[in-house]
Design goal:
The protein is of the alpha+beta class and 177 residues long. It has two domains: 1-30, no CATH class; 78-175, Dihydrodipicolinate Reductase, domain 2 (2-Layer Sandwich). The chain is 28% helix and 15% strand. The protein has helices spanning 16-21, 49-62, 96-104, 123-126, 160-175; strands spanning 82-89, 109-111, 132-139, 146-153. Helix 4 links the parallel strand 2 (109-111) and strand 3. The chain is globular. The N and C termini lie far apart (50 Å).
């Protein structure tokens, strides 16, 4: 950010941010004013180690070794925090209201979900806190068995994969029974 020094012309042409920032070490591209669709080390077939770790840890925590899980890890310039876009598919229809009710009464979860008032969790809002913060809860338009939500947490207090798994663990019995 110091190298940008308030330069408002950056971002007008391809490569101009990289030219101002210089060598982006330790990242593969400049992180300031950018997102990088990569975290971790290269693994087979274009996956990276962080994406495979989310898959492996979530399956282990849920004790469901074959549950389908896919993740794309993206570096975003925040001081602290992990965020996830979660798409959870259940064995029956789950409405937005049902999911919100379960989340609202779940210990260690804070539901902040009023998009009309621009109220939803962001990494900057949850830094330094212990709970998992959830918002943007909605039923998938093309699949009433799927609920989508945005989840944030302070990754120094609780990891992103653990948050996702704990939410799925808590929602599944209450919404599929």
């Amino acid at each position: 950010m110091a190298k940008l020094g308030g330069n408002r012309t950056v971002g007008q042409r391809s490569g101009d941010l990289r030219a101002v920032i210089g060598d982006p070490e330790p990242f593969s591209a400049p992180l300031a004013l950018n997102v990088i669709p990569w975290a971790g080390s290269l693994k087979d077939d274009g996956w990276n180690s962080e994406e495979l770790k989310i898959r492996r840890e979530t399956r282990k925590i849920l004790s469901l070794p074959d549950v389908p899980i896919s993740a794309t890890c993206v570096r975003v310039p925040v001081v602290t925090g992990h965020s996830l876009a979660v798409h959870a598919t259940f064995g029956q229809e789950v409405t937005r209201e049902q999911a919100q009710q379960v989340l609202a009464r779940t210990a260690e979860v804070v539901l902040v979900d009023d998009p009309a008032r621009h109220e939803y969790p962001t990494p900057a809002d949850v830094v330094g806190t212990d709970p998992t913060w959830v918002g943007r809860v909605r039923q998938m338009l093309d699949d009433p068995f799927t609920v989508e939500m945005f989840v944030c947490g302070d990754n120094l207090r609780k990891g992103a994969a653990l948050n996702a798994a704990q939410l799925a663990e808590l929602l599944a019995p209450q919404l599929t029974g």
